[in-house]
Amino acid sequence: MSGGPESSAPRAHWLLLTLAFTEGAAVMVAELIGAKMLAPLYGNSLYVWGATIGVTLVSLTFGYYLGGLLSYRRRRVEIVFWFMLIAAFLIALMPTLAHRLMTVLEGVDAIRAILLVTSLYLLPPLLLLGATTPLIISILSRDVADAGRVAGMVYSVSTVGGILGTFAAGFYLMPEFGLARTAMAGGIVLAILPFIFLLRLRHYPALLYPVAVALLFLPGAAEKPHPGVKVLYQSEGLLGQLKVVDVSYTTPDGGSHRNDRILFVNRAGQTWVNLDSGEAVWDYMHYLKTVGSLLPPGARVLLLGLGGGVTARNLQAVGHDVDSVELDPRIPDIARRYFGLSPDSKVIVDDGRHYIRSTRQRYDLIVIDVYQAEIPPAHMLTVETFRELQQRLNPGGFVVISYTGFLTGSTGYGARSIYRTLLEAGYTVNLIPTGAREDARNNIYIAALGDIDFSRPRAPLVVEGRVRALPELFVDPAALELDQAMVLRDDQPILEKLNLEAAAIWRAGYYRTFTRPFLDMGIPLFE
What is the chain's alpha carbon radius of gyration, rounded to the nearest angstrom? Predict the structure, then answer.
């Protein structure tokens, strides 16, 4: 083929429809990767997904318009090939670009940074891909009357590509190979046909593409040796990045040397244990164990949210039969391999709300400890959910909820709303903060339909070296300003918004303590 007028360009339907198919797949792969690359630094919140979807739609909008202009003025298939080749390289470049942008913008307000980062690494390739669709339609259309049929066919083929690209990337490629390799693979696959046909058309500058991609394979900054940090496990997936890290360090006061193991979800700590003692570092897990020991041995416990399995182990240690429900199928294996959960512990991989509705089993204690990093699942903490839990409780049973420790002011609006929602559902509620500092504690809600005898826990609670009775720690409800709270409902899933300020403070603390130091050691945000 020669680079001449449009009449000499390849017009085979199979080629152009194949390009439409790969375009649709590439758009969805880039969108998924774009959102998941933000998660280690900014979380997996509604705001991250909203920004990603919004930038995607803006990109495609301008791309469709650009493609329409070019198809009207110059119906040249070479434009399609060049746009796809350049977009392919930009998709392969996304992880490198995202990593550098997020590092540079680490001090910028989170929402502004998310919008800026996604616009810079996602808009250019998606704009180019969007422009190819009207170009392909114009090339395939023989006349105006044929345009509708061709447009429907091209968009259908592109959508099928998007569906398959979403499934392939979300359920196999990202979890198996990571974000960077998936982006690289997507960029290479997208470039194959455009590269071949551009060379056949004697567009030799296309040879720059393999050179540019080869440069991306060059090793970046090598991981700096650091005997105090060892990454045991890392996995990317639709439900977030999981990382298990061993950290050896001396406490800030210059005291004892510690060896800890931490499970991170999107770089926020989910489980933290001391390897020397095997005990949880976070105090709230000891509170849950004490509260659980109010029940006699052999009680049936439902734990919603497994994490590293420490709470499940603690409740088993006081003699209870524990059923754990965990949404992420990777978590149970991590809990067993790295955090000592017994192989025969019962774990149901399911959404907690779905399990509550589908099971007929009743329990003496239901523990809700559900987070995806700093994000509380709003559908698990509504008045409708709390009423459904009543159907799963045995007489005398009760519900315990672990939530972030903010309680006052605007940061505590979400926590106060949970308290008010429990009251609306008909529970008697007692609330225990696990410490004085709101940004370094949890709030433990104990919600019952009747009276609970708090006087004789079989696992006493030791706080600062002395045994404390649980009622001594209860918050006075009159001090909670419940008039400045709302009842959370299914039809208004607003908890994530109410928790936004608290979540930002919590994530900022993790960034200072772990994410930034890990980056300085050469441990990347994602792989």
Answer: 27
Residue in the structure block whose two tokens are 């890290």: 245
Residue in the structure block whose two tokens are 């001396």: 250
Query: Can you tell me whether residue 55 is helix, strand or coil?
Result: helix
List own/partner pairs for 164-173 with CB under 8 A and 24 or more apart: 164/25, 165/24, 165/25, 165/26, 165/27, 165/28, 165/29, 166/28, 166/29, 166/32, 168/25, 168/29, 169/28, 169/29, 169/32, 169/33, 170/32, 170/237, 170/238, 171/238, 173/29
The distance from CA 44 to its chain's CA centroid, rounded to whole angstroms, is 4
> What's the predicted TM-score (pTM) here?
0.85
Q: What is the pLDDT of residues 432-475, one digit of tens each?
A: 999 889 988 999 999 999 899 999 999 999 988 899 999 999 99
Q: Are strands 363-368 and 393-404 parallel, antiparallel or unpaired?
A: parallel
- How far apart CA 409 and CA 393 sit, in angstroms, is 33
Domains, in order of start, for the chain: 6-216 (1.20.1250), 281-505 (3.40.50.150)
Would you state the structure tokens that stand for residue 414, as one six-digit string? 């979400």
Q: What is the pLDDT of residues 491-527, one digit of tens each?
A: 998 888 888 888 888 778 878 878 878 777 777 777 7
Nearest in space to 386 (alpha carbons), one of 430, 342, 353, 414: 353
Q: Please name the residue ranges forming H helices in 399-473.
A: 413-424
CA 185 to chain centre: 22
User: How far is it, in rounded angstroms, from Cα 176 to Cα 225?
Assistant: 26
What are residue 393's DSSP bridge partners?
A: 363
Cα separation, 187 vs 214, whole angstroms:
12
